[in-house]
Amino acid sequence: MATSNANQLAAELARALLSRFLVIHAHRRRLAGGSAFGPSSEEVAQTLTGGAELAAAIPAEDARVTGAAAALAAALALEPDAPLARLVRVFSLDELDTAIVSVLLAPELDHELERAIAFALDDFTRKRVDLGFLARLIGGHEPALHDRVLTRLDDGAPLRRHGVIALGSAEHVPASMRTLRLADRAVAFLRGHDTIDELVRTTVRLSYPVPLQAIVMAPELIAQIRRALEGGIAPRVLLAGPDGCGRAMVVEALLAERGMRAVRIDLAAIASEDRIADKINAALREAALRDAAAILDGGTAIKDEVPRALAQAIADGSAGLAVPLVFTLSSRPAWMVNAIPDLLELDIPPPSFRERLTLWTRELPPPLADAADLETVAARYAFTGATIARAARRAAASARLRDPTGQVTLDDLGDAARLMFSHRLGGMAQRIPTGFKWDDLVLPKDTLDAVREVVRFARLRPFLLEDWGFAAKLPYGRGVSAILAGPPGTGKTMVAQLLAMELGYDLYRIDLSQVVNKYIGETEKNLAKIFDEAESSHAVLFFDEADALFSKRTEVRSSNDRYANLEVNYLLQRMETYDGVTLLATNLEQGLDEAFKRRVRFSVMFELPEEAERRRLWRSMFPARVPLADNIDWDLIAKRFEMAGGYIKKAALRAALIAAESRRAITTADLLEAARQEYREMGRIV
Question: What is the mean pLDDT of residues 106-111?
C-alpha cells in the first residue's frame, strides 16, 4: 500500500532528527575505519547529511529539523483525513508527541532508517529505541527539551494513556532504558490497514445506522439528544433508560446526518473480563482512529458498583479524547460524575402507549394483525422497541405454523409477549397457572363490580395516563394495586388468577418464608429483587396472607420494633413507585397498616356467599362429564351448609370420591355426607 505524503514527511523528520543527533554526539562515535557490526559513522553521516562537515553542521541540522517539522505540520493541516493527521487530532497530540510518533513510525516504513537508528544506539542487537535515547534524539542540545520529551512519555500523557505507544517491561531495567514502540494497531492504522484490534474484536463493532425517520421516539426528546451531541467537539453524554428503547439507534442516526459514524462498544462484556484497562483503551482507540463517536453500551450491568479498574480506565481513556462519547445505561451511576466531570445526562423513558402501538403496527401491519388486537397488546405490555420487534416476529412465525394465511391473533401476540419475559424471581415466588374462566366465578354483585373496576383500570390505564394526561397528576403510584380482603375460601386467589389472565400476565405468589429474613436489611433486599424483576418481567405480584408482611407499624419499644417498622416503610415506598400489578390478599383487613390502605388503589371485599350464591357454587364445582343424579336437592345443600367457595370445592370432590368408588352418579346423600365431613373439619356443628 502506498505511503501517504504525511507519512513520508514524518520519515523525513525522523531522518533530520537522526542526522542532528549524530552531529551532536559525533565525538562519541567511531569516526574511522568502519565497524564489523555495520556501516561506519562516515557512511551514515554521508547518507543523512549529504557529506557536510560534521563539526560545522549543527546550525544546519537545527534548520533541517525545523524545516522538516514545519513541512509535516503543514501537510497535516492540508490533509486532515490522512491517518497521521487524524491520529494527531483525535488524541490531542502536540508537536513533541508528533515527533515521537514520527521517530517510531519511520523504521516501520523504511528499513534503512532502522539500521541508522541501530547505529545511533551504538548497538546493532537492539531493535527498539529507549526513553533516554528518544529524549536525547528529539531534545537535541537543549536539556530542558529532554525533560519535556520524557514528560510526554509519562503514563498519564496522551500517547500512553490512549495506547498509541507501548513500553517494554520495567523489570530489572532503569527507567530511561525501557524500550518503546508504536502499538501494533497504531502502525496498522498509519499504514492504511483499518481492521479492529484483535484484543477487542468480540466487543467492538461498527454501527450501521437506520434513517432517523424510522425511529419511534418523541420529537422533543430527539431534539434534546441532538443538542447534546452538538455540544462542542467531543461531548460526553449519558443516555439512561431501559434496554431496547432506541438510545443507541437515535445517536447513530443523528451522527449519520452529520456524516459521522459510530463505534459500538460492549461495555458490559469488557467489565466482566480481565485486562479491563487495556480493553477499554483499545476500544476507545478504535473509535478515535476512525474519527467516530464511541457508543459504550453498559445496559443493566453497569451500575453504582463496578470494578475500580473500569471506572479508572473510562476516566483516563476519555480525558483528552477528541471524539464524542455516548454511554447507554439503564441508570445514572454516581461514579461517572467523578470519572467524566463534563458528562451531560439525559433520561430516555420507555415508549409510551401510542409509541408502542406505532411499533406494533409497523411490525405487524393490517391485515397481518387486527388493529384492535394490536391496541390491546400495546396497552398490556410496556415493551421497548427491540422487544416488540422480537415478539412480533415470534407471533408471526406461530401464526404461519397454525394458519397458512398467517393471520396473527391476540392469542399469538399474548403467547409471544409472555415468552419475552425474563423471570428470575427464583425460590421467592411461585408461578400460579391461570386455568379458570370468568364463568367459574361466583361472587355477590358488589364484589364482582369491584373486580371489574380493577380490570377496567388496568386496561384503560395507558389511555388515562397518556391520552387524557393523568400522568401529570400522578407522578408516582401509577401501578395497578388492590387489596383482596375476606374470609378464607371466598375466591381471593381465584380472582387474582382471573385478573392475571385478563391482563395477559403471569401470576406469581410471593413466598413470604423466603422473603422475610431475621437479618437486618435482608428482607428489604429480597423485596427489592422481587419488585425489580417483576417490573421488567410484567408479572403480577400476589402477596397471599399479606397481613404477615404489611402489618401495622408499632410503637418503637425496642430495636426489633424499629427494624420491623423499617421493613414496612420500605414496602410503602416500593408500592408507591412500582408501576406493575400488585395484589394483596388478607383474611384480616384490619391488620393491615393504614398507610397501605391509603396507597392501594382498590379494595375488594369478599363476603361469605349467600344461599343463592352457594347453590350456584355447588352446581359449578362439577365438570360436565361428572354423572349427577337428576333429583339432587341443590336448595337443601345450599341452605343447610354455610360454606365459602373453597370449602364447597373440597366437599364436591369428596362427594365425587364417594360415588366414584361404586362407579355411579352422585346423589343428594353423597353431597350431604361430604358436606358434613367438611363441616366437622371446619370445627362447625353439624
Answer: 88
The residue type at 654: R
Q: Which of 266-270, 353-357, 580-584, 629-633 has the lowest mean pLDDT?
A: 580-584
Cell of 127: 531493535
Residue 30 to residues 33, 48, 53, 441, Cα–Cα distance (Å): 8, 16, 16, 106
- When the pLDDT of each residue in the chain is averaged and rounded to a whole number, the result is 85
Q: Which three cell numbers stand for residue 390?
A: 422480537
Contact 75, 83 (CB under 8 A): no
Q: How far apart are CA 456 and CA 451, in angstroms?
A: 9
C-alpha pair distances (Å), 469 with each of 218, 465, 476, 479: 16, 5, 14, 15
Going by C-alpha positions, the residue among 385, 447, 440, 380 that lies closest to residue 415 is 380
Q: In sequence order, what are the residues at sequence separation of 6 or more whose Cβ sits closer than 8 angstroms to the Cβ of residue 548?
A: 512, 516
Of 71, 72, 79, the closest CA to residue 105 belongs to: 72
How far is the first Cα of the chain from the last one, in angstroms, to the nearest whole number?
101
Among 67, 62, 73, residue whose Cα is nearest residue 142:
62
pTM score = 0.75
Distance CA 70, CA 68 (A): 5
**Per-residue pLDDT tens over the stretch 149-166:** 999 999 889 999 899 999
**CA–CA gap between residue 585 and residue 588 (Å, rounded):** 9
Q: Which amino acid, one-letter code, is at 552?
A: K
Instruction: Provide DSSP, 342-407.
Output: T-EEEE-PPP-HHHHHHHHHHHS-TTSB-HHHHHHHHHH----HHHHHHHHHHHHHHHHHH-TT-P
Residue 367 preceded by cis peptide, ω within 30: yes
pLDDT higher than threshold 90 for residue 422: no
**Cα dist. 186→54, 102, 230 in Å?**
35, 12, 28
DSSP string of 101-157, one letter each residue = HHHHHHHHH-HHHHHHHHHHHT-TT--SEEHHHHHHHHHTT-HHHHHHHHHTTSTTS
Alpha-carbon distance of 193 to 634, in angstroms, equals 88
Inter-CA distances, 86 with 70, 92, 197, Å: 17, 10, 17
Three-state SS string over 405-452 comes to CCCECHHHHHHHHHHCCCCCCHHHEEEECCCCCHHHCCCCHHHHHHHH
Domains defined for the chain, CATH in brackets:
5-190 (no CATH), 198-347 (3.40.50.300), 355-420 (1.10.8), 438-605 (3.40.50.300), 611-681 (1.10.8.60)
- Look up residue 322 and give its amino acid: A
Across the chain, which distance is largest between two alpha carbons, in Å? Answer: 131
Q: Return the C-alpha cell found at 461.
A: 390505564
Q: Is 169 exposed, middle or buried (0-12, 13-18, 19+ CB in 10 A)?
A: exposed
**Is the confidence at residue 218, as pLDDT, over 80?**
yes
SS3 assignment, position 172: coil
Do the bridges between strand 165-167 and strand 179-182 make them parallel or antiparallel, or are there none, so unpaired?
antiparallel
7-15 average pLDDT score = 94
